[in-house]
Amino acid sequence: MTSLIEKRSALAIVVGEDFRDPRIAFEAISSVDQVAVVSAGHPLALRQSGGSIGLADLADHLQIVLSDPTPVTGDRMFGVLSPQTCRVTGQDAKHAMILAGLGWGRLPHWQVARDLAEGRLVRLATRALGRDSQLAAEAYLAHRIDEPFGPAAAAFRQALKRQLGV
């Protein structure tokens, strides 16, 4: 969002509803399922074999969360349930830390599907993180309403929409 507002980019993909700006148009393109996961050897994975995990159980363990390096979010935190957090600036780092057994967190299902299927990660069974420990967020193609698309942005937009079937 910051790059759009500051006119450093023509398009952005934004996931979620938290940040709207009257200068920015949002076009829904897809839904992104976020799932709560932990490495198969993590104490939370072992604990849940007897049933579901409660909020207090989650709070006892390190939660790996994304940190926004821009001023858009300020000091706001989203989806943080544990007082013990480790902040990272990218999904790949978060994924690697969760795989390494350092903590738990939510990641896009597309990013962890293979790890889940092959048993490296397990979904956390808790209603505190959404039905089936999953939340769906809408993904949007965002652009400034006062800036017309250039040829590259227009071609990218069309290719993305074609690829996603929208």
Automatic annotation (TrEMBL):
Keywords: Plasmid, Transcription, Transcription regulation. Residues 11-164 form the LysR substrate-binding domain. GO terms for biological process: regulation of DNA-templated transcription. It holds the Pfam family LysR_substrate. Gene3D superfamilies: 3.40.190.290. GO terms for molecular function: transcription cis-regulatory region binding. Belongs to the LysR transcriptional regulatory family. This is LysR family transcriptional regulator. It comes from Tistrella mobilis (strain KA081020-065).
